[in-house]
Amino acid sequence: MHTLKPITKEGIQHALEKVERYRLLNQPAEAESICRDILAVDPDHQTALCMFILSLSDQFVTGMAPKDAREAISKITDDYERAYYNGILRERLAKAAIARGGYGSNFDAYEWLMEAIEAFQKAAAIRPAGNDDAILRHNACVRTIQRHHLQPRAKESREPLLE
């Protein structure tokens, strides 16, 4: 059986550069693999956690589950970053739902986008001076809702069954 080989702590910075390159080349599985190698050596490396979340969420359209990304978000120590990446996760789940289509996908997308907007609002309230990233993402979510004419799910109105 093949075994994974650990990277060195000294190689983390160079590995992070590779993660960025693979993400830019639209090869998120390669970026994810490198992030896993970094996190095996330094499980709390904040930059690697953020890149891991992005690499995983780049794969949502192909059916990647958000479980590992949610776990990584819980390890982010900065309140702003945690709220921001929580929003990113939900925004990307919404966009994956839109891309996949199917019954109820637009309603799912709307719900994810509303959760993303809420996370981005929380992040914007505690953002560092001069950092408007959460506002930019908030606006992108609003525009996605508008562009795709997304609406909330209709409230289910059930009549009681007659006996």
Characterization of this structure:
With 163 residues, the protein is mostly helical. The chain has 2 domains: 1-77, Serine Threonine Protein Phosphatase 5, Tetratricopeptide repeat; 78-150. The chain has 7 helices and no strands. α1 (12-24) packs parallel to α3 and α4 runs antiparallel to α5 (79-100). It is globular and about 65 Å long. The termini are far apart.
Number of strands: 0
State mean pLDDT (0 to 100 scale). 94
* Rg of Cα set: 18 Å
**Run of helices and strands:** HHHHHHH
Main sheet record: none
* Helix content percent band: 55-70%
N→C terminal distance? 63 Å
SSE arrangement:
Blueprint: H1 12-24, H2 28-41, H3 46-57, H4 67-74, H5 79-100, H6 105-125, H7 133-147
Task: Describe this structure in a few short sentences.
With 163 residues, the chain is mostly helical. It is built from seven helices and no strands.
Write a concise keyword list for the protein shown above.
single chain, 163 residues, mainly alpha, Serine Threonine Protein Phosphatase 5, Tetratricopeptide repeat, 2 domains, 0% strand
